[in-house]
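Incident log, structure service

09:12 report received: a user says their structure output differs between two submissions of the same chain.
09:20 pulled the input from the user's history:
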Amino acid sequence: MKQRVAVLGSTGSVGANTLDVIARHPARFEVFALSGATRVAPLFAQCAQFRPRFAVMASQSHGEELARQLEAGGIPTRVLAGDAALARVAAHEEVDTVMAAIVGAAGLASCLAAARAGKRLLLANKEALVVGGELFMTAVKEGGATLLPIDSEHSAVFQSLPEDPASWAERVEKIILTASGGPFRTREPVTLRNVTPDEACAHPNWVMGRKISVDSATMMNKALEVIEARYLFGLAPECLEVVIHPQSVIHSMVQYRDTSVVAQLGTPDMRVPIAYGLGWPDRVTSGAQALDFSRLGDLSFESMDSRGHRERFPGLQLAWQCLRAAPGTTAVLNAANEVAVAAFLEGRIRFDQIHSVNLATLEAILPSKPGSLDDLLEIDAQSRVAARQSLARLSP
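09:34 re-ran on a clean worker, output below:
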């Protein structure tokens, strides 16, 4: 039988790449549901191509517009709207696999719904773990879900670890996440205050959405990935390391107790980890170009302690700071960063002030231990208020 897939966040870069892989295997995968935020036109085009049972939009007005267009085009897809509809689709009894690719904390509720329903959950939304933490991992365990990471770094770690998770703590010395360094790896830190949104979004290796591109430029994406790795793989924070690898060929590594290192290599193309997640435990073609070692050239690495990287990327250290703080602090960091990045992209603050907003919010919010989704959403809401207050105190 075909694997029925719900692609949440299908109009983003990960969602579009997921559909590209699915289209290469029509006998193996069937699109059951798609979702988008506000972009009606691309979701309409996807519905026209894949004919899903459901399409979900964030707002009622955008959902009504999509429904009108689908009806006019004779496409029988049923349109739903809102967070409750997303959670309903994610937990639908006919869904086998959920691609969780909604950016930010907005994807948390549907991720939890899929986990509790025992789905095969392909996690491209790192915020589900950064915000949800142990609460999310408990839902995965209790629901019997299969959790497969889609971030290229975490997919690489997953592929490099032993098959038995019970042996990870005993056999693994550390996990090494690689980072490209983004567009400003060699730029003088004092000049970063003048960075424009277009410059920050011009990643040298990856094609991504604007928010995650800015996170890559500040290396906050790597801070969030450190937090995600802590919950995904269960290792202590001090067993997680980041090294800069500009070529983005080695996607991450696992160092074992005997000092052996196992790594996963591939071209910087998100279709590779997506195909791995869709096909696991099998391997299916991704459409990505294979590595040509005869033309690869040098692979280089830089410590975070070298070349002024700690000054250039101060946000990275917040990962370990938050993991050692009270439960819920990682949710504070995520909310603050979403508010700060949005303000930067809108031209309301400078690039170097993103870190200032994050720090000020962490100082302002001391969360209580979250025990439910409502608790997490309350921490998120309080943190966003504090972040906006810190924005108001900044001069552009």
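09:41 both user submissions now match this output. Likely a transient worker issue. Closing.
09:42 reviewer note: The longest helix spans residues 373-392. The mean pLDDT is 94.
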